[in-house]
Design goal:
Layout (H helix, E strand, L loop, with lengths): L1 H21 L1 H18 L3 H13 L1 H48 L5 E3 L2 E3 L1 H70 L12 H27 L18 H8 L4 H8 L1
Antiparallel strand pairs: 1-2
Helix pairs in contact: 3-5, 4-5, 5-6
Length: 268
């Protein structure tokens, strides 16, 4: 037992060293790549189609993962819009309410009435100063919120565009797979009685599989055509007797409807 382990370990070390110093790693990679290609080509067409259909269906999970955050983002944006609208309306009303007070101060009145209460100009001016600070701070906050809203809307549009691309890509894959499935079924019908081994071959992997399968379908179509119809032989048969040369004038008259024998037959 120990001897076998030692021999196996020595062999593994030797293989690693051989791969490192003689380039056998390149041979190994090439062998594995060829084995993977041969396995795909040996799979039945129906199995390969079902596999790709499952891969396309799995894109629904990707779509679900994209839809949920987009919905939450849209809700945040809508709430932010309402908040900005309310703040803008409130600020505008506060400014409007302060205008009559400013007018009384400008008129130099000794007593100023605010909400039916009498105040001195000094009291009103101090309160006006505080109100103006509060309004300016609210306007600054509104500008900040507007910038945040603009950024969120830009991000939302990008996310929605990405979602639309994924949906479009999924539909494209479904259509292409349906077309390939129909072509594969047509080829299988044409292979009845012919001993033919059919080379059955989430977004980037699907793209590669579809292209590989399209190439495979085209190859099978050409091969089937050759098996059914053969190759046209343009070489003359040495056993066939020589034919007399054609009377090209007679041939032309015949083709143009000027054949003399046809005219005689028609006159009769």
């Amino acid at each position: 037992m120990k001897k076998a382990l030692v021999i196996g370990l020595i062999g593994a070390i030797a293989l690693v060293g051989l791969a490192k110093f003689t380039g056998w790693d390149s041979y190994a990679k090439t062998w594995f790549a060829r084995a993977d290609r041969d396995i795909k080509n040996d799979l039945p067409a129906k199995f390969e189609i079902d596999r790709m259909r499952n891969e396309i269906a799995s894109m629904d999970g990707d779509l679900s993962n994209m839809i949920r955050p987009i919905a939450e983002y849209r809700a945040d944006i809508e709430m932010l819009r309402r908040d900005i609208a309310r703040g803008t309306t409130t600020t505008a009303e506060q400014k409007k309410n302060l205008v009559p007070i400013v007018e009384q101060l400008q008129a130099g009145q000794k007593h100023i009435f605010v909400n039916n209460k009498k105040h001195t100009p000094e009291q009103v001016q101090a309160q006006l100063d505080r109100d103006l600070d509060r309004i300016k701070k609210a306007e600054t906050d509104l500008k900040t919120k507007q910038k945040i809203l603009d950024a969120k809307e830009t991000s939302l549009k990008a996310a929605q565009d990405q979602l639309a691309k994924v949906v479009t890509k999924k539909r494209e894959y479904q259509l292409r797979l349906a077309q390939l499935e129909a072509e594969a079924e047509t080829l299988q019908v044409g292979q009845v009685g012919i001993d033919v081994k059919f080379d059955n071959t989430r977004a980037a992997q699907i793209e590669a599989d579809l292209k590989a399968f399209e190439h495979r379908i085209e190859t099978e179509r050409a091969r089937l055509d050759l098996l059914n119809h053969g190759v046209v032989n343009l070489q003359p048969n040495p056993q066939e007797p020589a034919r007399p040369s054609l009377d090209l004038n007679a041939v032309r008259n015949y083709l143009e409807g000027n054949d003399e024998s046809s005219k005689v037959a028609d006159n009769r």
